[in-house]
């Protein structure tokens, strides 16, 4: 047996032991989409390696690799060391999807590498989330669905490709946790979400409004997705909010136009003065029971907490504030989310990627809890 075979064997055993331990503790909820199809023979573990499906309990989610058997820094960097979607029968309750596209940026490029940087940083995530008192990967089948490959030289074609791929994923009944990429990708993702749920409430965490009209005549950029979404009627304009807005603008008209579209604004200074609990309550009241899409630009965080991004602005949220606001939204009907603009070339010691991985973890936990609750 080769060293690669042994590595695959240990990874498979690690998954099986993690599943068995969680099941023994009564932590799992049965019924993950596609999980029952991921039994014997569904995983290529290499010549001589045991069947990774051995010991899999029918109907139970397949969770992360057991880090007590396989060190966190070993093996492929899927999100949170979860299985690939092909390993669980091709479908999941929550699909973690990368979109390595950054041709819509207006300043520093590099967010095309964000998804994989977040995956690498997510090796440190553990299966129990004490802040939400939940084991998300036991409550629902969460899987890494790989990347959507979009044309980097043609923004219009890329938008169409992302939209079609999102349609396919959502069409399986999955919710999406998308890792960007720049904020251009939010528009096709919102189109796909609205096609499935109708106009959605939008909660947008960002330093910038992203409701500008065009850049150099281009309608699709990372600064325009939410103006396009309002124009296309895919957002519920009674439930639109920006959080974390700050920094200079081109003029007062930017705010006036944004207000006319229906957006409410919670600035980063508002969060500091009013506190996360009050802000979360205000957002919950605005969202109500509408289907909610959350879009997070990592530059909502102060550069001290997220230096690895393309358009940093001083005076942002702390990572603690962002995570606490999200936890305060746990009862909202979150149908999908994206996290964008992580540009690892400007990062230091994975500060930005670590913050992003924990943010995606909180969002995934919210979705997994709701899926489990819907199943009763």
Please tell me about this protein's structure.
The structure is a single chain. The protein is of the alpha/beta class. It contains eleven helices and eight strands. An eight-stranded parallel beta sheet has the order 2-1-3-8-7-4-5-6, with helices on both faces. Helix 7 links the parallel strand 5 (about 235-245) and strand 6 (about 265). The protein starts with a helix and ends with a helix. Residues about 1-10 and about 20-55 have low confidence and may be disordered.
Task: Outline the fold blueprint.
Blueprint: H1 3-24, E1 94-99, H2 114-121, H3 136-139, E2 142-147, H4 155-171, E3 175-180, H5 186-197, E4 200-205, H6 225-231, E5 235-245, H7 252-261, E6 263-267, H8 268-274, H9 276-287, E7 291-297, H10 319-327, E8 333-340, H11 351-375
Parallel strand pairs: 1-2, 1-3, 3-8, 4-5, 4-7, 5-6, 7-8
Main sheet summary: 8 strands, parallel
Overall number of strands: 8
Helical content stands at 25-40%
C-alpha Rg, in Å? 20 Å
Proportion of strand residues:
5-15%
For the record, give the distance between the C-alpha atoms at the N and C termini, rounded to a whole number.
45 Å
Helix- and strand-based class? alpha/beta
- Major sheet: order of its strands? 2-1-3-8-7-4-5-6
Query: Uncertain runs with pLDDT below 50, 5 residues or more?
Result: 1-10, 20-57
Shape, please?
globular
Helix count from the secondary structure assignment: 11
Written as H for each helix and E for each strand, in order along the chain, the element string is HEHHEHEHEHEHEHHEHEH
Mean pLDDT across all amino acids: 88
Oligomer: single chain
């Amino acid at each position: 047996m080769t060293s690669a075979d042994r590595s695959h064997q240990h990874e498979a055993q690690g998954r099986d032991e993690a599943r068995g331990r969680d099941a023994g503790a009564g932590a799992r909820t049965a019924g993950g989409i596609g999980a029952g199809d991921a039994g014997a023979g569904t995983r290529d573990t290499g010549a001589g390696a045991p069947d990774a499906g051995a010991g899999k309990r029918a109907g139970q989610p397949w969770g992360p690799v057991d880090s007590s058997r396989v060190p966190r820094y070993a093996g492929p960097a899927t999100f949170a060391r979860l299985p690939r979607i092909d390993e669980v029968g091709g479908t999941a309750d929550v699909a973690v999807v990368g979109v390595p596209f950054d041709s819509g940026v207006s300043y520093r490029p590099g967010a095309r590498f964000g998804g994989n940087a977040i995956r690498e940083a997510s090796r440190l995530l553990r299966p129990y989330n004490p802040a939400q008192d939940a084991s998300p990967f036991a409550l629902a089948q969460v899987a890494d669905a790989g990347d959507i490959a979009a044309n980097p030289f043609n923004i219009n074609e890329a938008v169409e490709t992302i939209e079609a791929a999102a349609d396919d994923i959502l069409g399986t009944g999955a919710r999406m946790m998308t890792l960007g990429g720049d904020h251009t990708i939010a528009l096709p993702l919102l189109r796909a979400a609205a096609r499935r749920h109708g106009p959605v409430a939008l909660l947008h965490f960002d330093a910038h409004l992203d409701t500008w009209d065009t850049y150099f005549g281009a309608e699709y950029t990372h600064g325009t997705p939410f103006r396009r979404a309002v124009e296309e009627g895919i957002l519920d304009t009674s439930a639109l909010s920006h959080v974390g807005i700050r920094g200079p603008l081109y003029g007062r008209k930017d705010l006036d136009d944004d207000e006319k579209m229906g957006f409410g604004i919670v600035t980063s200074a508002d969060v500091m003065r009013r506190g996360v609990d009050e802000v979360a309550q205000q957002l919950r009241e605005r969202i109500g029971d509408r289907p909610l899409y959350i879009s997070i630009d990592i530059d909502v965080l102060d550069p001290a907490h997220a230096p690895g991004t393309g358009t940093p602005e001083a005076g942002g949220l702390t990572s603690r504030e962002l995570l606490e606001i999200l936890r305060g939204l746990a009862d909202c009907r979150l149908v999908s989310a994206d996290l964008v603009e992580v540009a690892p070339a400007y990062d230091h010691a994975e500060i930005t990627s670590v913050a992003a991985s924990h943010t995606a973890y909180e969002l995934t936990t919210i979705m997994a809890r709701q899926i489990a609750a819907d199943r009763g």
